[in-house]
Amino acid sequence: MSSMLQTRPAPAVSVRRNPAIGMFVVLVGQLMLVLDATIVNVALPHIATDLHFGSASLSWVLNAYSLAFGGLLLLGGRLGDVLGRRRVFMTGLTLFTLASFAGGLAQAPWELVTSRALQGAGAALSAPSVLALIATNAPNEGARNRALAAFAVISSAGAALGLMLGGTLTDLVSWRWTMFVNVPIGLAVLLLVPRLVVETARRHGRFDFVGAGSATAAAVSIVWTVINAPEHGWASVRTIGGFVIGAALLVVLAVTERRHPHPLLRPALLRSRQRIAGLVAMAAVYGGMLATFFLTVQLLAHQFGYSPLRSGVAFLPVPLGVFAMSRLAPRLVARIGPAPLIASGAAAVFVAMGLLVGVHSSTSYTTGVFPSLLLMGLGMGASFMPITVLALAGVEPEHTGAASGLLQTMQQLGGAVGLAVVASVFAGRSDHGFDPALRAGYGTAAILAALALASGLTLLARRSVAPAAA
User: Fold this and answer.
1) Which of 232, 284, 374, 441 is the most exposed place for a label (fewest CB within 10 A)?
2) C-alpha angle 415/421/427, rounded to 5°?
3) Check whether domain 16-200+262-462 has CATH 3.30.460.80, yes or no
4) Angle 109-137/44-51 helices, nearest 10 degrees?
């Protein structure tokens, strides 16, 4: 019967070397997708000058990528489950690479914005398959946890690395190389993946078109509304209407997924309170992180007078903290479980953002900014890997693409919401001077980190109640 799922064996691969190398190649592809969320940030003034962007339209160089990425992630996860994760990963990466090349050649604002949107669409197809390919290609649990730790490093440190790489390329070569740099890396990954990574089994059946349409439209509506809210006002008719449309589409999605035999988003994924707490923590931490990066770029460029290269290097403490903690995270998860790490990591991020509230234009980088960024990196390195473990815990192999898509959707939506809210607060207080606006922005980011900490504490509470109940 066409409505029954049938599993077809994965095609044989003629060359299969060490699976660890294959997972590394896939993770390099994931790193490109994460880097591009921020790689153009410090290059925006140069882009505005070269392509004659207006002040209002320049933000779409960032927003077009976030909108397409966040809006299409659930669809990308389901396509990977149905058509094969390796195939969909490579399709998305091909689109991403071609769009990067086109963006580097852009001669008009609309050409660059369109290329960024196509990059986001390609990222949305590729990203959900990364975790699924890791889970299915790992030879054992230890290798799987190490790969998940590497994935967490990329997810948490990639945004800071994007700022560093973008500043370096803009200062030393041209802003166009923030686009061109993806082309040789993308081609290398596309060449190696078929040789090193085994395709997953394809699950055939009726595709959930209503679920796909409502999920994508809901995510696009919410992200679009959040991005435009600072311009139109959070209480405006357009903003409220956008949220109402997004909520209505989510209701359609919920009803459809409960009734469809092969849903886009399995309701079982949302029945775990631990998974929901982990997803909320991911959204809040990532949103606070991107917002903090936005504010710190303003501080470094406009008050400290840093060049793009120096601004990028200033974020080095974040990846250093992430890399240091990532060496310990897999062993700590195996020993004490994910909940204590998520709670302690969120607490470190909250403290780091709280310290930044006291930073002002006369504060030195060494005493005011560096310690906070390092502590933030340690906190993100501690929390991202166990959140990923929670998101995939108990998920059948054939549904890991959907679970991964859900995790990364929350990450991207959290980033879009956090950045838009903090940017709105910062702009609203700018009339009172830079320092008051900066404090208000950092304070709002700290509230997001507090939400992540609260989610982490609920995980600890459930963990302590479980043995007593048993």
Assistant:
1) 232
2) 125
3) no
4) 140
